[in-house]
Structures are given as structure tokens and as C-alpha cells.
């Protein structure tokens, strides 16, 4: 014989305590998930910045390699008509353009004068539109690297000795046998490379 509807049956639901426990567990899981996603996002940002930094360094070093492999033993005349050596460099600015290193290189079968300077934390490539300069003929500056603290150079002479400036005496001597570049970044990292000259 069947019981009348509802008689003897039990209806189970969630108690208030069970709901609060479930909400607490869900909240903990959400916090853990959020922290994991936040850590992944932070890690990706760090990796992207690191990859960008190495890519910029690689491009800059490749530019140095290309320029120094094409240095030409050809003197040039400055704005005053005075003959200058094919390559000259110093720890400080060489001229009013602020260049620390200047040289002549082959560029597509032509001779070009170019240089490098550090200005306001940026390493810049300097390009002149002519080899022998007319008065007030300044260079075009192209940014190569950002957040650079120091830019140092050394020059290998014919006796195998490193010099802090080039040339060592008056006249227009040939380029050195090699050039060493040292860059110190604002992060404290230092890049040092040596390049043989032709």
C-alpha cells in the first residue's frame, strides 16, 4: 500500500554551514588561481623585457661588427679643411658633435664617415652626408641602445698595446689593428667586445 504523497519522505538541502564552507573553499581556490595567473603574467613580462634587451644588444653588436669590418684607410678633411686620420677616438667628446669615435668606412662601394656617441643615456650612431665636411655640416644621429651608463673604447696599436685614445700623435696615421668596445648599462650589466680591423 502506497503512502500518501509526502508522508514518510525526506527532503535534503544544504544547510547554512555547508554553504559557508563551500563559499570559503571556493574563495581560497579563486585566490590561488589569481595568484598563479598573476605570477604567470609577471614572468611573461620579465621574459619579454629580457628578450627585447638581448635582441637590442645583438643588433647593436652586429652593427659594430659590420662597421669595423669595413673601416677604410682614408683620411678626410674637417670643417676647417684640416686633414684628419681615418679613425679617431677618445674617452670624451672629439668635437662639438659629441662623438667619441669617428671613422671612415666603405658603404656600398662608397666612402662614408660615421661615428658613435653617448648622449643622455642613449648610444647613438652618427652619419655624415659627405666625407670631407663643409662648414656647419653636422651628422644625423640614430639611436642604437637605450639606458646606457658608460661607453668606453680602446685601440690596439701596431705593437700589440691597448691605447685609450687614437691616434697617439699628430698627423694622419692608419687605423689601429683593433677596437675594443665596453658598454655599461644602467642595470649594471657590462658588454665588452673586441673587433679586428682590416
TrEMBL record:
Name the UniProt record assigns to this protein: Type II secretion system protein J
Coiled-coil annotated spans: none
Keywords, alphabetical: Cell inner membrane, Cell membrane, Membrane, Methylation, Transmembrane, Transmembrane helix
Topology of this chain in the membrane: Single-pass membrane protein
Record family assignment: Belongs to the GSP J family.
Native organism: Chitinimonas viridis
Localisation per UniProt entry: Cell inner membrane
The keyword Transmembrane appears for this protein: yes
Segments crossing the lipid bilayer: 12-34
Gene this chain is encoded by: gspJ
Amino acid at each position: 500500500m502506497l503512502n500518501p504523497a509526502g508522508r514518510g519522505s525526506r527532503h535534503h538541502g544544504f544547510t547554512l554551514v555547508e554553504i559557508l564552507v563551500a563559499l570559503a573553499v571556493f574563495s581560497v581556490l579563486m585566490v590561488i588561481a589569481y595568484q598563479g595567473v598573476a605570477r604567470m603574467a609577471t614572468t611573461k613580462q620579465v621574459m619579454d623585457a629580457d628578450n627585447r634587451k638581448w635582441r637590442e644588444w645583438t643588433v647593436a653588436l652586429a652593427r659594430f661588427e659590420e662597421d669595423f669590418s669595413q673601416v677604410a684607410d682614408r683620411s678626410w678633411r674637417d670643417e676647417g679643411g684640416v686633414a684628419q686620420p681615418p679613425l679617431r677616438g677618445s674617452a670624451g667628446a672629439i668635437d662639438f658633435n659629441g662623438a667619441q669615435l669617428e671613422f671612415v668606412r666603405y658603404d656600398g662601394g662608397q666612402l662614408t664617415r660615421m661615428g658613435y656617441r653617448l648622449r643622455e643615456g642613449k648610444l647613438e650612431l652618427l652619419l655624415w652626408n659627405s666625407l670631407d665636411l663643409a662648414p656647419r655640416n653636422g651628422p644625423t644621429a640614430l639611436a642604437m641602445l637605450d639606458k646606457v651608463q658608460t661607453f668606453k673604447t680602446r685601440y690596439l696599436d701596431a705593437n700589440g698595446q691597448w691605447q685609450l685614445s687614437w691616434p697617439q700623435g699628430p698627423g694622419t696615421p692608419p687605423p689601429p689593428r683593433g677596437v675594443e668596445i665596453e658598454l655599461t648599462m644602467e642595470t649594471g650589466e657590462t658588454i665588452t667586445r673586441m673587433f679586428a680591423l682590416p
